[in-house]
Design a protein that fits this description.
The chain is α+β, with helices and mostly antiparallel strands. The chain contains three helices and eight strands. Strand 6 and strand 7 form a beta hairpin.
């Protein structure tokens, strides 16, 4: 199996560096939920599916609580989760009002990665063996709505 992609053209005129250029965007053929994860983990270890599900559900509860206490959560081999805020800016510090200027919350995720000393580049053990190929027509979930695009006008390849 491979990570599938489709090409799309950036039509965001605000991002002049990327405007009009073509980029690859990963597409997904299925959603792998808690039940499927628990079933797969059960096949690979001695725990029952119900036990794995209970651990995943409890992990989610603990993570929500700890992120809400301004704690970062680092899961070895996976990455680090941190609380994030969406806010609007003000010209001066005195103008800032949390109830007006903080517009939302989010969770930031930084995947675990290692640095190659010789090339000085970072790699993730989770992605190092991926094979990438173009998605065949009609074999993926529908394209997202325009409302689902990157709110910051990103170019889809995670570059600034």
């Amino acid at each position: 199996m491979a990570v599938l992609y489709r090409l799309y053209q950036n039509n965001n005129k605000k991002n002049t560096k990327a405007y009009g250029k073509w980029f690859a965007k990963a597409v997904h053929t299925n959603v792998y939920g808690t039940d499927e994860l628990a079933q797969e983990v059960q096949r690979n270890c001695s725990m029952k599916k119900s036990d794995v599900k209970a651990v995943i559900e409890e992990l989610c509860e603990v993570m929500a609580r700890e992120l809400g206490n301004s704690h970062a959560i680092k899961l070895s081999g996976l990455g680090t989760f941190r609380a994030g805020l969406k806010s609007t800016g003000t010209v001066t510090v005195r103008e800032f009002n949390a109830s007006k200027n903080i517009t939302g919350t989010k969770i930031n995720f930084l995947p675990f990665r290692t640095r190659d000393a010789s090339t000085k580049s970072y790699t993730s053990p989770m992605t190092s063996a991926w094979h990438i190929q173009e998605a065949p027509k009609n074999t993926v979930l529908p394209e997202p709505n325009e409302d689902d695009t990157d709110p910051d006008g990103g170019n889809g390849n995670d570059e600034p």
